[in-house]
Amino acid sequence: MKHYLTAGLAGLVLLLSAAEGELLNNPKLEKNAAGWANWGRKQGTTLTSTAEGLQVKAVGPKLNQGPGQTLKLKSGYEYEYSCRLKGKLGEHSSATVLSWNFPKLKRGGKLRQIRGTFDWWEHKVKFTVPQNSDGITAIRPVILTGPGEVMLEWVSVKELGEAVISRKGPEKKIPVIVPVKHPKKVIDFSQEKPVNVRAHVNEKVSPPPKGCSVENRDGAFVVNYRFTTAGHDALMFDIVKNIDSCKKVSMEITSDGKGHRLFFVLTDKSGEAHLTSKPILLNFKGKKNFNMVIPLPPEKPYNILDSIWGGDGNQHLDLPLKSMTVVLDDSPDASTDSGVITIKNLNIGNW
Amino acid sequence: MKIKSLCIAALSFLLLNSHAEIILRKAETAPKLDGVIRAGEWPEPLSCPFKKVVTLEPAEEKTEVRMQYDREYLYVALSNPVEITSTSSGIFSQPRYELRLGKLPDVKVFAVTLDGRHIYPANGWDAAWGKGVIELRIPLSLLSGYRIYSCNIVCDNGKGASSMFPIPILNYNDFDSMRKIYLGNPEEIAAAEKRLESDNQALRESRMEFCKQFAGRKSPLIVGAKAQSFQVPEAWKPYRFASGKDFYFMFLPRMPFVPNRENTIPLFQNAAYQVHSWDLDRGFREKSQPLTKLLNDPETNLSGYILKKTSNPIMYNTESAAGYSLPEQELKEKKESREEFIRKYGSRLLCVDINESVGAGGGFPTMIRLAKLPVPKTKAEAYEQLRKLSFDPARTYIRDWAVFYPELAPYRAPISCTHTDHIFLSYGFGMAGQEYGPKTLDMPFAHCVSRGAARQYGKPMRYYLTTHDNKLVFPGCEKNYRNYSYNDYRKALRPGTRSFSFGIKYKTLLVGKVSGPQYGVPKDDWRRCFIYTYMAGGNVFHDESGHYLMYAKYNWKTIDREDPLAVNLREPKQYLSDMGAMMAEFYDRIVCKEDRGMVYAPVALMWDLHHGYFSNYTPIPWGCINSTEGDLMMHSVENALFPKSERIYYNRGFRTGPYGDIFDVITNNASAKTLNGYPVIFFCGDVPVNAELAKKLVDYVRNGGTLAVNWKQFEPFAKLFPTDFPGAEISASDRRKAQCSYSTFSGKMLMEDQMFYYTAAKLRKGSYAAVFTADERKDPLVIVSTYGKGKVILSMPDFLKEQYTDRMLKIFHDLMAELRDRTLPLKVKGDVQYLVHRNRKGWLVSLFNNYGSGFNRTWDNPQNQNDPKYDVSVTIKPGFKYKAVREWFTGSSQLTLNVPAGDVRVVEITK
Fold this sequence. Notes:
The complex is a heterodimer of chains A (351) and B (911).
Chain A: H1 2-19, H2 30-33, E1 37-38, E2 46-49, E3 54-58, E4 63-65, E5 67-72, E6 77-89, E7 94-102, E8 107-114, E9 117-128, E10 136-145, E11 148-162, H3 170-173, E12 185-188, E13 195-201, E14 204-206, E15 213-217, E16 220-227, E17 234-243, E18 248-256, E19 260-267, E20 273-275, E21 280-282, E22 285-293, E23 308-309, E24 321-329, E25 337-350
Antiparallel strand pairs in A: 1-5, 2-3, 3-11, 4-10, 5-10, 6-9, 6-11, 7-8, 7-10, 12-25, 13-14, 13-17, 15-16, 16-25, 17-24, 18-22, 18-25, 19-20, 19-21, 19-24, 20-23
Chain B: H1 2-11, E1 22-23, E2 25-26, E3 51-52, E4 64-69, E5 73-79, E6 96-103, E7 106-113, E8 118-120, E9 126-130, E10 133-139, E11 148-156, E12 161-163, E13 179-182, H2 186-211, H3 225-229, E14 248-251, H4 266-269, E15 272-276, H5 290-295, H6 302-309, E16 314-317, H7 335-345, E17 349-354, H8 363-370, H9 379-390, E18 412-414, H10 421-427, E19 432-436, H11 443-457, E20 461-465, E21 482-487, E22 499-505, E23 509-516, H12 523-535, E24 540-543, H13 546-549, E25 551-552, H14 564-569, E26 575-576, H15 578-591, E27 598-599, E28 603-607, H16 629-641, E29 663-667, H17 672-677, E30 680-683, H18 691-702, E31 706-710, H19 711-714, E32 728-743, E33 748-763, E34 768-773, E35 780-787, E36 790-795, H20 810-823, E37 826-829, E38 833-838, E39 842-848, E40 872-878, E41 884-887, E42 896-899, E43 904-910
Parallel strand pairs in B: 1-13, 2-4, 14-15, 14-24, 15-16, 16-17, 17-18, 19-20, 20-24, 21-23, 28-29, 28-30, 30-31, 31-36
Antiparallel strand pairs in B: 3-12, 4-5, 5-10, 6-7, 6-11, 7-8, 9-10, 11-12, 11-13, 22-23, 25-26, 27-38, 32-33, 32-34, 34-35, 35-36, 37-40, 38-39, 39-43, 40-42, 41-43
Helix pairs in contact in B: 10-11, 12-15
């Protein structure tokens, strides 16, 4: 009897020590992952407890998500993040394993992406919560893309202690990125004249092909385009104006729904051109309002980006802008096509 | 007495600020080396509390350092030495103190373990361990410089490192962190140094005067019949694969230019491809059933495509995900898959390949620790341990999981970033070769070793290039642990694109990374690498960054004229990059059309098969065996044949040797056929000789070979040879020393930097002292004798090297120059690296100008033009009649030609 008690006590101690320091709620994902959110519920992703663990199953072709839990961690601390899983994915599917995200900073990380069929394996990674984070961390052990099944036996997040990162000295000399300050204002382009209308014809800068035109009609830029080659074609025009605030842009677009793309190029004080990193997809028919932050890639020390060229070459958006270029790009390049796009109430600034 | 003590204290004052120099006191009487600090025996400790490396926090240990000197020695006492807290996680393989001393840049390392064994160098200095004290006695003759030395002491307690003078970066050899110690008053030292120079000059002049009497005395021919015939053995022909080809560029199938796909060119059509478990875009090296997964890889994937839709040769990488210790039960590769793989693809399989099989992660000492094997006492024991580890059925000690499966065993071909070639081939593995790169490993020497091994065992040799750079430092990154830059074209839409980031290594250390088409190594340096491997006889060349740099998303010929906006908006296409074009051009013009013949390497360096000479990783044999003077000779020979030059940007990889790349390395188990192929065999290091080898060597010389051996190498085995084999009678006990000699090779007096020791010899009849002491005794130092049709060259100075250092004597250099001149069918004049080849038409000379590229490149101008100031004019003087001359790249028919900085020329001389 004494032996049983001793063994039982030892077992309890082991159990307690195993769970010691665990920060996740329901790390074994029991009861259909109670305490976990199903981020993929809308896409039809299911979380089902089985004898082997939690089955994460998806059938849709695109991003299907998976289980998630949000933790409040300590800034500047290091954590060990691990899980054990196996899976079987469709041909074009993938599973992102052990991802974490700091919503405030809009960044995070992941351990790896797996495709195909994979057997039981314990995955482990360490991460540090950045000093400038509020500590809120989204923990997502598996994110499924495409159809497939993943069996999760357990997930764990444990604190390792204060992160020791020696950044003394070195970073001081690295250029400090000064964020661009955009004064609060709205700059209205609706009465501006489109100038310097030009085209790309099969990748070459050319005069606009016959039939192309851009004009300001009743406060709207009416773009008549013709893409004539199987290569890259585009039609573009400039709005030349001193622009001292350009964080956001808004407009009403009337699209012909042919799937082409709208880009902007901001030409700064020195003549350096900054191309927006994400286009507006013109895959809708009819009118649609846009009110968005102008998507420019983040500025990082020493980086030289393809999307920035000319001018003083400092890779920094120096206000005021000299001009903004509106670019209608054919998509795909192979398309030969024509149509009309209208951009009304084009405003830029910071609001 | 009190005043005297005060004076001593005043003399031994120690300045505390960080840049202060330290003036040591002269010991009145030499301290007893017994591990005990007695009153008055040592000065006060230096006020230099140890600080942790990199973080510069105060170290936990409170080591006190005392230093003093006398006429002959520097004395160091370390009290309160650290306790070993761990043996597994430190930077060094064994917890220890390392004392670094010398005149920059020639700093010597004296390493002393905490457990009572001094380990490196094994000889020439002394240490004693007591309770809480380690005392060292170092002869000043071991140190370069005169009474002013740069110094630091590093300590590793098994957990982390600390140092006497702060080291802010993880580089214990960081000269900036060293401080000067003065052995006496600086003014006195300066005056004494001047006197010394003057004395040396007087000695030099008097010896030169003495040597005038020998002017005109010429050495007889020192090589046998074999060297004079310039015959090239069949065994030297490059290895031919079953396909009939003798060379493949090899690529990862991540590249879009796989054979039979759009845009492909002959370089890619005819290449070999590496298929492995981690190119399937699963993001990490498969840990279970990788071969099964590879077989199931669909044809739409590149690996699947290579396997199933092409007939190109392949290599299969069996590098384990867990590095040096993956158990089989985690791999679980199916027998049916192994059999299917070999059945379907075995005929195309060049090998299953592993790189860095011994070395990274601590090397051999780490392996034996993992395997719980005892530290070997001899090299032969270490050799057998590595064999055991290489075939261990339970774990992947050399990273290679093919060890578990008999179906893959015949294809195993591990290589290392050091000289494991002969050792691995003797275990039965399939290929010689090494990992090398501009910043990685002595390139010509690595090829000498691999080529010799390949010829000795009749196997192919493959080379694995590490291309990245570690020299470009961005402002603010000077103190980083590492700064890497990569020739990475993968994401760039334009040549000027640059991506900069930081990483963290070992939890705390910053690593800077920069990638972009203009970063990484200078492109001409990269070009010289693959041309060198091809011309040096390589059979497979694989650039580990090939998939970064062979293709680009822009056309490098037109991109300058293209509109940046259009470049951004158009759908990306794949083009051959400018670097890819370099290789493609070389492939089309040279590999496909010219006959590289075979490398003519008339001098074989003979090593012990069990050598453990892993010079890239460790200064001592196998990383754990005390080194001898013979072992130091191996380092010294490498340094002498392929010296590092401050004039070469990547001087770790690129070397311009004064004697050309005329060497192969063979080992003492080589067959008679292998030995007989070489006109000259030169013993290097401690080379055990048994009766069988002795007989082979005697026959070799009798048949026209030339054997160059040092008395220290020959003496232990002299009884195995006929008494008249060496050309002298030697009394081993008659030991003498000298500093000057006269050489009949060059007709010059040779004055060494320090005294050397030698054994006196009496010439036999018919023998000749080609080099002798430049004094009245005229003791023979290099003795040439005839035996059969061949020659024996016996040298008498111990290992032909400076005692306890890694430098050969000038006598060695003089001998080597003579051997070069007597064994090559032509002379190459000009400061250039060269290889000599024999092809079907006649002779070739490959010329590599390592100078003038790389220097003056900066973080914002990384691919600057080569400096024409470093163009080299080279003249080739054939010693035979010839019909025509043609340079392969320019078509020139001149034997005097300009080799532009960083460039290559190959001159074909048709007989």
